[in-house]
Amino acid sequence: MLRVMNERAVFGEIFRLGPVSRPELAQATGLSKPTISVALANLGRAGLVREVGLRAGPAGRSALLYEARPEAGWVLAVDIGRAFVRVVLANLAGTIVTRVDDPSGSRNPTDLLAQLTRLADRLTAEVGIGRADVTLAVFGTPGIHDKETGALHLAPNLPGWEQPGAVDRFSTVSSSPYLVENDVDLAAVGEATYGLGRGVAHFAYVSIGTGTGMGIVIDGKLYRGARGCAGEISYLPIGEGDPLQADPTAARRGMFETVASADGIVAAAQRLGWAGATSAKEVFDAARSGDPIAERAVEVEVNHVAHALAAVTAVLDLELIVLGGGVGVQGGDLLIGPVQDRLRHLVALQPPRIEVSTLASDAVLTGAVAVGVTAARDLVLDRMVATNT
Length: 389
Fold this sequence. Notes:
Layout: H1 2-17, E1 20-21, H2 22-29, H3 33-45, E2 49-56, E3 62-68, E4 74-80, E5 84-91, E6 96-103, H4 109-126, E7 136-141, E8 144-146, E9 151-153, E10 178-182, H5 183-194, E11 203-208, E12 212-218, E13 221-223, H6 250-253, H7 255-260, H8 262-271, H9 280-288, H10 292-316, E14 320-324, H11 325-330, H12 332-346, E15 353-356, H13 363-388
Parallel strand pairs: 4-7, 7-10, 11-14, 14-15
Antiparallel strand pairs: 1-3, 2-3, 4-5, 5-6, 8-9, 11-12, 12-13
Helix pairs in contact: 1-3, 1-13, 5-13, 8-10, 9-10, 10-12
């Protein structure tokens, strides 16, 4: 067990530091140089680490450098969105080697799984491996994965996935181990790892697009709640009295999502007199051009978002809220200033700063890669240990 712990520590530091010498590893891990040498030898025999040259030192001495072999493992990361399916293949260093964005052909399980299998075959063939060679797959989906029944709950945009055992069918895409994670939670991990959330202990990623959701990071860790449902802000009681609440789907989608999502913005513009409004982006573009109806529709959206974030602020006391999703990214310049002004009047607390995600539509994929790479490194080490036992 001690040997395995040492190897994990050395392997992790090599990824963190890049090409590194034995003395540097000893300093970083606190392990002795002989222990470092043994760990490097074992990692090298397993094909996880390789020598990459020398670094010149004082008095003509040179230190042998080691790096992890990125191609020692592969992560298939998938973002299942309403309009697009985005799939990438990343190596153990977290580098995305190949990618494809494909329009969603169908959201029913059979057709979606066939599409994902086709895309996985395409990407793995591009790097000269098969699907069976993938170390780990990570699927980002709307809703909540019920691990007991294998169903996806609270995912109205994925009909059929609420059936027991539906999630288990992802094994047809990847015969390797796989994870199923909420897409907005993955986006929060992506922001924490590569985006605006780096180094921020308490923040939330709020996604507003075809749906709404929130990923919460507390003390630098993703917070899921007792049943994995933390952040389902679509069900906040925001928008009561709005005519959209008479829609039969409102209860299923949630009050906030019904009025504040992309469809809600279009409906507000139509109700205010713009009968031909077709998309939230169209409304935002018109508001920037000074169209009075579009400006009023944006004001309605500001009101809904401000009330939702006031509730979040009062409960969580965050440092930062990152705004994402199609509405959040496309309309952030129109929403953030007015929302911040409203927050100062809605809550007697110091409101968090609000910023538009720099990861844009890649936030979910970025988080899936971050989660997948961490887990895949553990898996390749576990296989090495099993082989040597």
